[in-house]
């Protein structure tokens, strides 16, 4: 089970709106000054994700919860997203090469097959993405931010 902590933004009628931040390895790498990836990460948008998930327990804004998703569904999604366009690229490129005997036709076929593979992957993910196996589940709920109060006697 893959685990990630999220922060509750809002909770209403059993639906929690969550905010998660994607972590990159750039924060732990020592070669930040000479690394092109670190510079691109600084220029690009921050990888923050907002999602909604069903929660029967009432949650407060600022509260942290731990989400989990099965590795098999994550690997299946990655396989679909990466392999479908690649398969389409090779299939249509080979078909165009065999039909037209031209490198230009093979290049056009590769472009069409790759785009077609992305479209097929998107359609399949839209159809199967709502299944329960592909949805994150709440594993742990932390205390609300105002639940603990420390008083010191001075």
Please outline what is shown here.
The protein is an alpha+beta fold.
How is the topology of this model organized?
Elements: E1 2-12, E2 15-21, H1 36-43, E3 48-54, E4 64-69, H2 71-100, H3 103-128, E5 137-141
The number of E-state strands comes to 5
Coarse morphology: elongated
Q: Sheet bearing the most strands, described?
A: 5 strands, antiparallel
User: Order of strands side by side in the largest beta sheet?
Assistant: 3-2-1-4-5
Q: Please report which band the strand proportion falls in: under 5%, 5-15%, 15-25%, 25-35%, 35-45% or over 45%.
A: 15-25%
**Class from helix and strand fractions:** alpha+beta
Total of helices: 3
Q: What is the alpha-carbon Rg in Å?
A: 23 Å
Helix content: 40-55%
Q: What is the residue-averaged pLDDT?
A: 84
Measure the end-to-end span.
47 Å
Number of domains: 1
User: What string gives the helices and strands in order?
Assistant: EEHEEHHE
Low-confidence stretches: none
Protein name: Sigma-E factor negative regulatory protein RseC
InterPro entries: RseC, SigmaE_reg_RseC_MucC
Pfam family, one: RseC_MucC
Keywords: Membrane, Transmembrane, Transmembrane helix
Can you give a write-up of this model?
- There is one protein chain.
- With 154 residues, the chain is of the alpha+beta class.
- The chain has one domain.
- The chain is built from three helices and five strands.
- The chain has helices spanning 36-43, 71-100, 103-128, and strands at residues 2-12, 15-21, 48-54, 64-69, 137-141.
- Strand 1 and strand 2 (15-21) form a beta hairpin.
- Helix 2 packs antiparallel against helix 3.
- The longest helix has 30 residues, at 71-100.
- The radius of gyration is 23 Å and the shape is elongated.
- The model has no long low-confidence stretch (mean pLDDT 84).
């Amino acid at each position: 089970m893959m685990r990630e902590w999220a922060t509750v933004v809002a909770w209403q009628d059993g639906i929690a709106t969550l905010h998660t931040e994607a972590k990159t390895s750039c924060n732990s790498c020592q070669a930040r000054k000479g690394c092109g990836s670190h510079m691109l990460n600084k220029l690009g948008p921050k990888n923050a994700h907002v999602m909604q998930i069903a929660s029967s327990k009432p949650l407060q804004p600022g509260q942290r919860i731990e989400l989990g998703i099965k590795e098999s569904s994550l690997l299946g999604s990655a396989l679909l997203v990466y392999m479908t366009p690649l398969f389409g690229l090779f299939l249509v490129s080979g078909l165009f090469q065999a039909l037209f005997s031209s490198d230009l036709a093979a290049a056009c076929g590769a472009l069409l097959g790759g785009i077609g593979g992305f479209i097929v992957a998107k359609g399949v993910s839209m159809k199967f993405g709502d299944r329960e196996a592909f949805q994150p589940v709440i594993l742990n709920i932390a205390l609300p931010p105002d639940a603990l109060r420390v008083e010191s006697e001075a």
